[in-house]
TrEMBL record:
Protein name, UniProt field: Alpha-glucoside ABC transporter permease
Family membership noted in the UniProt record: Belongs to the binding-protein-dependent transport system permease family.
The organism's taxonomic lineage, starting at the top: Bacteria, Bacillati, Actinomycetota, Actinomycetes, Micromonosporales
Gene3D superfamilies: MetI-like
UniProt KW Ribonucleoprotein keyword: no
ABC transmembrane type-1 domain residues: 128-344
Amino acid sequence: MEFEDFAPKLSMLLYGVIGFVVVVGGLLLLLDVVPNYFARRREAALVAASLSTSDGPAPTLGRRVRKHREGLLGLAFLLPALLLLLIGLVIPAIRTILLSLRNGDSTAFVGLDNYLWIFRENDIVRVLLNTAGWVILVPLLATSVGLLYAVMVDRARFEAVAKSLIFLPMAISFVGAGIIWRFVYAYRGEGDQIGLLNWLWTLVGGEPRQWLNEGPLNTFLLIVVMVWIQAGFAMVILSAAIKAIPSDIVEAARLDGVTPWQMFWRVTLPSIRPALIVVIVTISIGTMKIFDIVRTMTNGNFDTNVVALEMYNQAFRYQQAGQGSALAVFLFILVIPIVIFQIRNLRRQREG
C-alpha cells in the first residue's frame, strides 16, 4: 500500500486516538477521581483526628494526604481549561499540519512540496520579506515611541488625560484604524484633497500622490498605523516600570551629578529592561500575525502582502488548503522562538 493511500487512514486513526483519550479521560474522572476525592476527604479527617491524640510519623502522613488532595483539586480546576485547549488549539493544530502535507483539495499526499513552494515562488518570498520588515520595524518604533511618551508624559501636568488620549487607539479595532488611516492617505486627483497627508503635502508645494500605490513606501505607511496603535500599550507598561524604579537609586544618581541623558541611559533603561523585553516580545508576536490593517487598506496589493493575509487568500480565495495550511504552520514556527525566549527570560527573572 502506498503512503498516499495510507495517509487518510493515518489521519482518521490519529483523530480516533485523540477522541479515545478525551472520552476515557472524562470517564475516569467521573468514575475514579471524583469518588476518590470524597473518600480521601474522609480519610484526611480521620488522620487529622488521630493527630490530636498521638505522636510519631503521623504528621508526615497527614501532610502527604493533604498535598494529594490539593493536587486533585488543582487537577479538577485545570481540567476544563485543558480540554478547551485540546479542542480549540491542539486538535486544530494537528489537523492544519496534516492538511499542509496534502494538495489543494486534500485528495493526495504531497509531503513537503507545500513548504518548498513557499520559498520557490517569488511572490511568496516577497510576502516573507514584507512580514520581516513589519516584525523588525513595528516593535522597535512602537517601543521607542512608547518610551518617549512615557518619559515625557510622566512630567506633564495633566498626566492622566494625556495617557488616556495616547492609549485611546488601543481601543480601536485594527479594521477601524485601517479605515481611519485610509482617509489620512486618501487621494482625490486634482483639486482640494480630503486626505490629511496629501493636504499637508500640497501645502509645501508637492503634487498629490496615491501613497498606498507606491512601494515600498506604502508598506512603511501601513506600519505607521500599527505603531500608532501599539505605542499606547508600550507607554502604559513602560510608564509603570519607570515609576517602579526605587527612589533611592534615582536620588543617588542625582547626588553623583549625572546629566538627564546619563540618567536615562545608565539608570532608567537598565531598570526597566524586563518591561522593555515584555513589550517588544508582545508587539512582535502581534505584528507577525498582522492581517486586518493590510486587508482593509490595500488588500495586499501593490507589494504590501503579508503572511497572514496570504494564508487566508490561499486557503479561502484560491481554495488551496494545503498551501494555506503550510503558511499557517510556517507562521507558527516563526512565533515559537519568540515564545521560548520570553519563557526563558521570565524564568531567569524569577530565579534572580
